Automatic annotation (TrEMBL):
Protein name: Cupin domain-containing protein
GO MF annotations in UniProt: metal ion binding
Keyword set, alphabetical order: Metal-binding
Domain Cupin type-2 intervals: 38-100
Keyword flag Metal-binding: yes
Amino acid sequence: MGYRVVDTDSVEPIPDRPCELRRIGVEGGLEKFALNRFRAEPGEQVPLKYHYHTEQEEAFYVLSGTLFVETPDETFEVPEGGLFVADPESPHRAHNPEDATETVDILAIGAPAVSGDAEQYDPDER
């Protein structure tokens, strides 16, 4: 058996990201799925690039603020307490618009916990 409590505020942010990213699942010893906490100020995007995952399902749970997620067909507005889900092979770009009036805090959950399956997506090549 194994149990742990992780003080997510004490997890150091990952450098060189477009917004604050704390890999809280790694700190908690999670191996089957990824769990990350993001904080995006107005004008910041969440991922490094417009992308899709080849294997991983990805979900964004909005803790506070409003998250905007651009997809090839529409932009979703996800309010506090809302959940946005992207299936594998589904391009998306999560962000907090330039004209937003508040920070957005989210938990991002991905399963399986695979690294290197994020592929860049260019919406101009549709």
